[in-house]
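Work Package 3 (structural annotation) set out to generate three-dimensional models for the target panel prioritized at the project kickoff. During this period the team completed the workflow that converts sequence records into discrete structure tokens, so that structures can be stored uniformly alongside our sequence database. As a representative example, we reproduce one entry of 255 residues exactly as it appears in the project archive.
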Amino acid sequence: MMNKNPLSIFCLTILLSASVQAAETEAEHDYVYIFGYGSLMLTLSRTATAPDPTDVVYLPTKIKGMGRRWNLWSKKNSSRVLGLEKSDNKNAFVNGLLFPVKREKLSDYDRREGITAYQRTKVSIDDIQFYRESHRSQIMANGKQPEIFTYVAIPHSPFYVTKDKTDKPIATYYLDIVRAGCIEVDRTHQLNGHFINDCVQTMVLKDYVIHDDSASRNYPTALLEQARTKVVELEQFLKNDWPKYQDAIHENWKK
């Protein structure tokens, strides 16, 4: 019969515990990155899909060889919305925000963007330019390249629209969300207008019809109204339903 050394058992227990904790920590920090170039740049809009993780980096960047296009139609927003397309211009780029997402939350962003309108596409870090080169090392954990995704418009989707479709305008409701995101990124990272200027340059609004609906639609106001609706629903639940649940709990769990 094998003798059990208490010290050996103690050491083995510590090692197993450390391994489990390391695995849990790795799972908790299993992040990928999304390059957002439209409404995802604005915190208020982005976090409507999933809360921003903490203790991770959010970096202003550019993708080379891509163009920002108003090539998709959103019935929900009554507006053209942005989609990426590859560009033949070797100097083309799109600027945006590289932000972390827990891997299990990727499907939430897929649903938000719409899998029939956008294709989630991997991006090589070699195609990423950083506004500050020192930022590159911040997402290279242990020298390992992170997974980076962005959403590219599907050319033959039912939502794809060409520039000549003048009955499909850009609504200021959506446009201002994107422009506010550009300003937020620039100010948050103290880029002194460089990020904003790149947004202006690559947004290519010329020759598109813009419908000014700002008098009737305002994004922060819309979010506030949604929040108020949720508060009313919760108040009604607490007043009408919760007491009934409490009664049922006491009745069914008497023992």
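The longest strand covers residues 93-102.
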